[in-house]
Amino acid sequence: MATLHFRVATADDVALIHPLVESAYRGEESKLGWTTEAHLISGVRIDTAGLLAKVTDPDGAVLIATCPDDSTSQNIPETRPVIACCEVVRRTPQVAYFGMFAVSPRRQGSGIGRQVLASAEDYCLQTWGTEKLEMTVISSRQELIGWYQRRGYEVTGETRPFPFEELAKLNSVPLTDDLRFEVLEKDLTAASAGETGGKGSGISTPIGEVGKGGAAALVAADSTPRV
Ligand SMILES: CC(C)(COP(=O)(O)OP(=O)(O)OC[C@H]1O[C@@H](n2cnc3c(N)ncnc32)[C@H](O)[C@@H]1OP(=O)(O)O)[C@@H](O)C(=O)NCCC(=O)NCCS
């Protein structure tokens, strides 16, 4: 499994993250991955202004993963392709939200998503002391819901309406009327250290590496808290 380097994105990373998110969620390239919403929605997932808002949100962070072994990058961290990302947002002192989860379609299915999710959980625990991480998944994406359940997430039974108005603002089009979100959540305080990295594994810092050991192998490179 590739060693990944994780860091918190800055405004300078928006141009690197945007094509990754678009290619993973929708359109022809997304069909190279094992799960996509191309059959449910056409058009863009987010514009660069929306992405910039997430990156600069004082209550959130966009985590990005690069691969130090990537031969195309000449091993300069800032120029390495971003191969995966996610966002985390502190909703309350106890609850954080996980979203915008994307792995480059050509790299999916090799364990990268698992590492990103574990790192996000670790980040929330270490940075905010988050007790519960929640997410929303389009209800018909059962293969994806199953994937989250295998990572310890529970389907709460709560559903939320799909923000069709947000789609319209982006000129994106729903391909079905039956779009709604299923709410999933995980109690991070009950999770085992192996799954989340556990307290003290160093993800509170915005930069770290994770390899075969999962999030627990994160190495702090900067101890400056972000928020
Ligand atoms: C969801 C996503 C981030 C997962 O990343 P990933 O790197 O592929 O994840 P991993 O390699 O860690 O895990 C691959 C899993 O897919 C499973 N898988 C592979 N092919 C599959 C298929 N055809 N059907 C169902 N599951 C499949 C594997 O069994 C493995 O699950 P397991 O570890 O529980 O056995 C990635 O697929 C993605 O970017 N999808 C598009 C964007 C998206 O839908 N984001 C989430 C929105 S809520």
Secondary structure blueprint with pairings:
Layout: E1 4-8, H1 14-25, H2 27-30, E2 41-42, H3 48-56, E3 60-66, E4 82-90, E5 95-103, H4 112-128, E6 132-138, H5 142-150, E7 154-161, H6 164-169, E8 173-174, E9 180-187, H7 193-196, E10 207-210
Parallel strand pairs: 5-6
Antiparallel strand pairs: 1-3, 1-10, 2-8, 3-4, 4-5, 6-9, 7-9
Helix pairs in contact: 1-3
The structure holds coenzyme A (COA).
Describe this protein with a few key phrases:
two-stranded antiparallel ribbon; single chain; binds coenzyme A; Aminopeptidase; 27% helix; 227 residues; alpha+beta; disordered C terminus
In short:
The chain has 227 residues and is of the alpha+beta class.
Would you kindly provide a written description of the structure presented here, covering whatever features stand out?
The chain has an eight-stranded mixed β-sheet, sandwiched between helices. Strands 2-8 form a two-stranded antiparallel ribbon. It has a single domain (4-220), classed as 3-Layer(aba) Sandwich (Aminopeptidase). A hairpin with a 4-residue loop joins β4 and β5 (95-103). It is built from seven helices and ten strands. It is globular and about 45 Å long. Helix content is 27%, strand content 27%. α1 packs across α3 (48-56). It is of the alpha+beta class. The longest helix has 17 residues, at 112-128. It binds coenzyme A. Coenzyme A is lined by residues 24-25, 33-36, 101-103, 108-114, 137, 143-144, 147, 150.
